[in-house]
Design brief:
Alpha-Beta Plaits; alpha+beta
Length: 107
């Protein structure tokens, strides 16, 4: 187990997804972020089956920085209940994992 997480969110705009990625990396809440899409999401919302075109943002951060990253992603998000999922990274190349920790260090 490492102290690194991958964090996933989605949004309905390529521009907003890119802005989220840039702002999280600029704030050192994530070491890097990838935006992909469009993707098709199928989900139930307020009792209705929905299908939406979305863009996914995958960010790399640390356990220590996760609470601030989550708040950053949710703040100003256009969705009432945005997806924010954190997945532990159980293994990875030591150099890359060290780089994530270095890039997200406070200060």
């Amino acid at each position: 187990m490492t102290d690194v997480l991958t964090v996933t969110t989605t949004t309905d705009s390529a521009e907003f997804a890119a802005a989220l990625a840039r702002s999280a990396v600029t704030a050192k809440l994530a070491a890097c972020a990838q935006v992909d899409g469009p993707i098709t999401s199928v989900y139930r919302w307020q009792g209705e089956l929905e299908t939406a075109r979305e863009w996914r943002v995958v960010l790399k951060t640390t356990v220590a920085r996760y609470p601030e990253l989550e708040a950053h992603l949710v703040d100003g998000h256009p969705y009432d209940t945005p997806e924010v999922l954190a997945t532990p990274v159980t293994a990875g190349s030591p150099g890359y994992l060290a780089w994530v920790v270095e890039q997200t260090a406070r200060g």
